Structures are given as structure tokens and as C-alpha cells.
What we know:
Largest sheet: 8 strands, mixed
Helix content: 25-40%
Oligomer: single chain
Structural class: alpha/beta
Shape: globular
Radius of gyration: 18 Å
Amino acid sequence: MQDIFYPSKDGKNTVHACLWKPEGKAKGVVQIIHGMCEYAERYAPFAEFLTKNGYIVCAEDHLGHGKTAKTADDLGYFNDEADYSIVVEDIHQLKLTVQKDTADLPWFVLGHSMGSFFCRKYISVYGGEFKGAVIMGTGFKGNLTLNTALSAVKASARSHGWRFRSSTIKNLAFGSYNKKFKPARTQNDWLSKNAQNVDEYEKDPLCGFDFTNNGYFILFSVIKQACSKEVINAVPKNLPVYFVAGALDPVGDYGKGVLKAANKFHKAGVKDVFVTLYEDARHEILNDDCKDKVQIDVLNFFENILSGTDSVDG
Length: 314
């Protein structure tokens, strides 16, 4: 793995990113957009799987995450402007940086969880630059829910500031996620059926931290964008999009939100929309017991596009 550093669009921070390269000639590039309260290097096992199959892989640590965050106090705080578009532009800057050395290789993008919503916004702006997109661990929320959440965050920020970490907002966002998994062993049982994965997540100081009001404002803002008709309609109609999620993932409302999002893409005229829901799997499907199947399915999606099959199972 190679470390990459480049200036953030916020004009203040330096973004850290990871680059993995295959030993032989590359056939394509996969850009990964990580989720909330995690970081790029957690995707190393998946990246190494892809490099063994001939793909270059890159992923950046968002502002307020991983090695991009300067201090522990910066974890969960994106930017002073509370602007999600700065994160989107940092994501795109990674592509611009890496593609200088990748000639005309085809590019794919994969976004997980919070990263799936950033990915949905990203492909509405830059989708013409990609051969395919994987939307992992996503969902769908209506304006009423999101506007209520945004109002609550703004009220908390007025009282306590944008760096305040509100237990009330956290409970609003995630309070119901463990309900289906009672008796819950930890607060994060909803992440994975695999207990070892949950334990490793909880032990990692760069995972599971509390978001600031600023972080939640950008999170809810980009979800609102991703679920908007305007953004979905802006996705290129000829871009193959593959939705993958655990059937027991509360972020996707146990499959219902994933299917709703995919249906919105289909109704918007996106020609090739595929969905796989993994039975008995929760949120982090690349770390859950189904991870081997997920890796193969995503690889097949890329391979079929390159071969002109343009399907999931070939």
C-alpha cells in the first residue's frame, strides 16, 4: 500500500489517501468511498483481493476521519463551512491525482454506508467518468425525516456549538439500530453478525467515535441530496449501478430502503440497475460472514462490464 497526500478543497487540511497496485498490468481502477466513523485502510483486505484480480484501488480518508483528521478533536468534524460539496470535491481530487499515472484505464467507484450517499451525489456530478458504480450499505430517507434531523442538529449547534457531540442527535440517528439484535452484546451489534469484526471496530480508536454537530449536519445534508429527485435524475442513464447490502442492515431499513433507492434509479431511466441483498447479513458486508461472496459478486460486476456482458451474474 502506498500513502498519498493532497490539499483538501477546504484550503486548510491535507487529505490522506491509500493506493494499492497489482503486481502485473492493471485492467481498471476502483475508487472506494468509506463510511462514517471509519477510514480508507479498513478496506485493505478487499483492496488486496481486487489487486490480485488486476485492479488498482484507491481510497481517501474524508475530512474528520482517519489520518486526514489532525487530532482526536477533529474526528467527526468535516469543515468550517458545513459544506458536503467540499467532501465530494476531495473525493474527486483523489481520482484526478491517481489517474495521472493510470493512462486511460476504466474507472469504477464503490461507496459504503455514509460513503454510499456521497457516492450517489458523486456520480450525479461525475458519473460520466466511470464505467460502473457499486452502492453498498445504503438506504432511502424522505425529506420530512431529514429536515427534522437537520433542524435538531442546527438547534444543538446554536446551543452548544458545531464541535459539540450530542448524545441526543446520536440517539436520533442510531438509537433504533440494535433493536432487531437483542439481547445486544455491544452498541454496535448492528454492524455485523461476526462478533470479531464488531470487537475490532470497537477497539479501533479511529472507528466508532461520536460525530460532532458539524458531522451530523453534513451527513444528513448529503443523504438528503442523495435521495433527492434532482440528484437521482442527474445520474447518467448508461452508468451500470449495483446496489448491495445486508438483508438485516438497519441503514437500508432491512432491505426496503435499498430496494426503494434502486427503484428510484430505475424510474429515473438508469438502464442497468442491479440489487443483491445478502441473507442474514448486517451492515458491514465486506467484514461480515458473507464477505467472500460479496467480494466475488462485486468483482463479477466489474468484470462483466469490461467484457461487455453488463450484468451481475454474467
